[in-house]
UniProtKB/TrEMBL annotation:
Pathway: Cofactor biosynthesis; molybdopterin biosynthesis. This is Molybdopterin molybdenumtransferase. Its EC number is 2.10.1.1. SUPFAM superfamilies: MoeA C-terminal domain-like, MoeA N-terminal region -like, Molybdenum cofactor biosynthesis proteins. Keywords: Magnesium, Metal-binding, Molybdenum, Molybdenum cofactor biosynthesis, Transferase. One of its GO terms (cellular component) is cytosol. GO terms for molecular function: metal ion binding; molybdopterin molybdotransferase activity. Belongs to the MoeA family. Catalyzes the insertion of molybdate into adenylated molybdopterin with the concomitant release of AMP. One of its GO terms (biological process) is Mo-molybdopterin cofactor biosynthetic process. InterPro entries: MoaB/Mog-like_dom_sf (IPR036425), MoaB/Mog_dom (IPR001453), MoCF_biosynth_CS (IPR008284), MoeA-like (IPR038987), MoeA_C_domain_IV (IPR005111), MoeA_C_domain_IV_sf (IPR036688), MoeA_linker/N (IPR005110), MoeA_linker/N_sf (IPR036135). Residues 166-304 form the MoaB/Mog domain. It comes from Wenyingzhuangia marina.
Length: 385
């Protein structure tokens, strides 16, 4: 995972529309172009007054101001205006009294309330002043941050944009769901699985290409997608079989191999490399292997590409509710179900099967030298969502 973090660079900053910036990270500080609020504003429906120590009640009503009115009037001591929430208070008004605490008789306002300076007035610039920093470089644009920038009138932000992604599906045996299966064929499921996993995190600029187990076709397809994408995810054809052409084609295309094969289960033959500025993951075709590699490696790479300054896949330590005997010497990511402080390792851990993955909300990680874990033991758990 460390190798992914050090080798994946953030995309060059671009200005994009604020409405398209959800969950991206600011590439530069943003300063407020205005005072917010831009004028003294009433926080209540009621009456704005100008009082002093000699005049605390029986105000003379002189005007009405509602939200949106372009009214910059001033009051004399002892005067009041009818006012509504969000309306500009008279420029020198020093309190707003809620209408519930008032009565009006013959144009005179009586109040049943204490007067304090600037009660119920939102002062100009009290949230932020013009030229002050609104959000810092690296800030995540969640809905509140997007709303905040919109309150300042901002429509565009400089961010590290989302990557253009290509998914390449390899395999002669694969047919699209919805068509009948001939003997020897299986339904192709990695494309939709990866596409929806990506879409869930907001990554939707995806080109899907399918290629048969043919060296020249694989090379041509990979050459094209590498040229057109920031991130290429390849499914299958990365192991050692005579018809696994992905590794050979990638190297022939002068891809820099950063790692190939990891001591982990599932996902042993995972390939990670770079070609020019394009990041490439060749995922094992086994569906559970492909998805595990997606969660553990690709989600981190995506966050790095969009400039997340402090991402690491969320992990927690949970108490195991069942025993598990680990056979091999690879580290294992095990499909699991976390409930509160407990986690259960599910059955059906095969890389070729998705039945237990479909019920999982976590992956328990056991180090390579672990032989078994007992009920009640604490285990490292990746939460997947
Ligand atoms: N002699 C060895 N054989 C294998 C090794 C090994 O070390 N030595 N490693 C095994 C492991 S572990 C894995 S994982 C697989 C990975 O193989 P590939 O990445 O080359 O993937 P394929 O052979 O193309 O497919 C594997 C398996 O998954 C099915 N598949 C592939 N793509 C899809 C898809 N899009 N949708 C659904 N199912 C898919 C495919 O039919 C195969 O059954 O290699 C082992 N072999
Ligand atoms: O490493 Mo493979 O992904 O176990 O089946």
């Amino acid at each position: 995972m460390e190798m992914v973090n050090t080798n994946v660079l953030s995309k060059k900053p671009e200005k994009i529309l604020l409405k398209d910036a959800l969950d991206l990270f600011l590439a530069e500080d943003v300063f407020s172009p205005i005072n917010m609020p831009p004028f003294n504003q009433s926080a209540m429906d009621g009456f704005a007054v100008l009082f002093d120590e000699t005049h605390q009640n029986n105000f003379t009503l002189v005007d009405e101001i509602k939200a949106g009115d372009n009214n910059k009037r001033k009051l004399n001591i002892g005067e009041a205006v009818r006012i509504f929430t969000g309306a500009p208070t008279p420029t020198n008004a020093n309190a707003v009294i809620m209408q519930e605490n008032t009565s009006v008789e013959n144009g005179v306002l009586n109040i049943d309330d204490t007067l304090t300076d600037y009660k119920n007035i939102r002062l100009e610039g009290e949230q932020i002043k013009q030229k002050q920093i609104a959000l810092q470089k690296g800030a995540k644009l969640n809905p509140a941050a997007i709303g905040f920038l919109a309150t300042l009138g901002i429509t565009e932000v400089s961010v590290h944009p989302k990557p253009k992604i290509s998914i390449v599906i390899t395999g002669n045996e694969l047919v699209t769901p919805g068509t009948p299966l001939a003997f020897g064929q299986i339904y192709e499921s990695n494309a939709i699985m990866l596409q929806t996993a990506l879409a869930k995190k907001g990554f939707t600029d995806i080109t899907l290409v399918k290629v048969k187990d043919d060296y020249n076709d694989t090379k041509t397809v990979l050459n094209n997608v590498i040229e057109q994408s920031d991130l290429v995810l390849i499914s299958g054809g990365i192991s050692v079989g005579d018809y696994d052409f992905v590794g050979k084609a990638l190297l022939e295309l002068k891809t820099q191999q950063i790692f190939y094969k990891i001591k982990q289960k599932p996902g042993k033959p995972l390939f990670f490399g770079k070609n020019q500025n394009t990041i490439i993951f060749a995922l094992p075709g086994n569906p559970a292997s492909a998805l595990t590699c997606y969660y553990i490696y690709i989600e981190s790479a995506l966050q790095k590409i969009i400039g997340n300054p402090n991402y690491s896949k969320p992990t927690t330590t949970l108490t195991l509710s069942n025993e598990y005997i680990k056979k091999g010497t690879r580290g294992e990511f095990l499909k699991a179900k976390a409930t509160g402080s407990e986690v259960e390792i599910l059955g059906s851990q095969s890389s070729a099967m998705l039945n237990s993955f479909a019920q999982a909300n976590a992956l328990v990680y056991l180090e390579d030298d672990v032989k078994m874990v007992k009920k009640g033991e604490k285990v490292k758990t990746y939460i997947i969502d």
